[in-house]
């Protein structure tokens, strides 16, 4: 299913009651000057044609903890664009403990179709050490309130926080999947300049996941989410100049195409399994070929060196995320078959 376009408006740290130890919204959103509703409305009105099916998204803070008047000013921007037919819905991000029945009703009445909840972990100790200030149960309380108003709910998870390991990441994923969200976003923890986490890192009290460990963990999480039929709509922070030039990143598994590394890892494991059983020629959808070969053809080179020359044939008639070997189709996501 084709996803609707998202037009993000970043409101860095808007409504935040305090700073979580990992968070530096100005760096991750590359937004140094907070936008104001009037100029935002003018800019978007001028750039979006009527008949748009996208969503205007308020990201970068805890929208529902903004002063009510401030929320109304932003929701009014959305209302004007909705009335003009330039977007079809609104989306916000907030904390899981910042949703009440009244808030859920107000959001739905304003045209908010999707709420993204920053859960980060479902381990109470990991949440405490990250300075989140909400309980592991908060998302389970917020989700039905939003659903009751017809609002779709996405959950965010952050593997690799202080005190967390792969077991924590998979446990938090399991809890998240059991809540049956509409989607997940998974951002491995990055040490960003100027954060409390950077101080812990510099004092030797925190070590982030390596890129290869984060990719392997992400691959397992993606398999499990697919098995549960819950989409992961994004892996890793959205690339921007601060992150790509390295000025914002002290350490951690940042990669501008982190999601592709994960898909390539799954293809590597899938094809290795088939090659170990004697498979040497494969057929697949052409749109999967870049992930199959991997960045800088790393999979292609490594698989050839392990299993001898492998051949790949593409056909648009084949389903995506599936590979055919000796007339049998295999899903990218199954661990063994
Ligand atoms: S993670 Fe969310 S609640 Fe925490 S400081 Fe950042 S924007 Fe605020």
How is this structure best described in words?
The protein is α/β, with parallel strands linked by helices and 337 residues long. The protein folds into 2 domains: 6-256, TIM Barrel (Alpha-Beta Barrel), CATH 3.20.20; 263-331. The protein is 39% helix and 18% strand. It is built from 13 helices and 13 strands. The chain has a 7-stranded parallel sheet. The longest helix is centred in the last third of the chain and has 19 residues, at 258-276. It binds iron/sulfur cluster. Iron/sulfur cluster binds at residues 13, 16, 19-20, 23, 25, 61-62, 95, 118. Iron/sulfur cluster binds next to loops.
Fold blueprint:
Blueprint (H helix, E strand, L loop, with lengths): L5 E5 L14 H5 L7 H11 L7 E5 L8 H16 L5 E6 L6 H9 L2 E9 L3 H6 L8 H11 L3 E6 L8 H13 L4 E4 L4 E2 L3 H7 L8 H17 L4 E4 L5 H4 L4 E3 L6 H19 L4 E4 L4 H5 L4 H10 L3 E4 L7 E4 L2 E4 L6
Helix pairs in contact: 2-3, 7-9, 9-11
The protein binds iron/sulfur cluster (SF4).
Iron/sulfur cluster binds next to loops.
| Computed structural class | alpha/beta
How far apart, in Å, are the first and last alpha carbons?
A: 26 Å
Radius of gyration: 21 Å
Under CATH, the homologous superfamily of the largest domain reads Aldolase class I
Q: Do you know the CATH topology of the largest domain?
A: TIM Barrel
Uncertain residue ranges = none
CATH architecture of the largest domain: Alpha-Beta Barrel
């Amino acid at each position: 299913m084709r996803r609707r376009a998202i037009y993000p408006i970043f409101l860095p740290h808007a409504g935040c009651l305090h700073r979580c130890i990992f968070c530096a919204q100005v760096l991750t959103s590359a937004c140094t000057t907070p936008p104001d509703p009037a100029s935002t409305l003018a800019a978007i009105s001028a750039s979006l044609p009527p008949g748009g099916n996208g969503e205007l998204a308020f990201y970068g803070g805890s929208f529902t903890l903004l002063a009510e008047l401030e929320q109304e000013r932003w929701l009014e921007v959305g209302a004007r664009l909705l009335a003009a037919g330039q977007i079809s819905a609104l989306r916000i991000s907030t904390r899981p403990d910042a949703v009440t029945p009244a808030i859920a009703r107000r959001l739905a009445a304003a045209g908010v179709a999707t709420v993204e909840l920053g859960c980060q972990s479902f381990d109470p100790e990991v949440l405490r050490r990250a300075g989140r200030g909400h309980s592991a149960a908060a998302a389970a309380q917020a989700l039905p309130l939003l659903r009751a108003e017809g609002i779709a709910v996405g959950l965010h998870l952050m593997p690799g926080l202080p005190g967390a390991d792969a077991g924590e990441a998979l446990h938090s994923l399991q809890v998240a999947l059991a809540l049956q969200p509409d989607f997940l976003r998974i951002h491995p923890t990055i040490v960003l300049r100027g954060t409390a986490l950077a101080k812990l890192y510099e004092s030797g009290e925190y070590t982030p996941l390596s890129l290869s460990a984060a990719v392997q963990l992400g691959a397992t999480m993606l398999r499990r989410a697919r098995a549960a039929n819950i989409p992961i709509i994004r892996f890793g922070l959205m690339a921007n100049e601060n992150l790509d030039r390295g000025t914002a990143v002290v350490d951690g598994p940042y990669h501008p195409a982190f999601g592709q590394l994960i898909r390539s890892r799954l293809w590597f494991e899938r094809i290795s399994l088939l090659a170990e059983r004697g498979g040497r020629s494969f057929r697949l959808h052409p749109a999967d070929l870049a992930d199959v070969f991997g960045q800088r053809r790393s999979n292609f080179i490594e698989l050839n060196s392990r299993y001898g020359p492998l051949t790949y044939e593409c056909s648009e008639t084949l389903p995506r995320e599936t590979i055919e070997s000796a007339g049998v189709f295999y899903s990218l996501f199954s661990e063994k078959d």
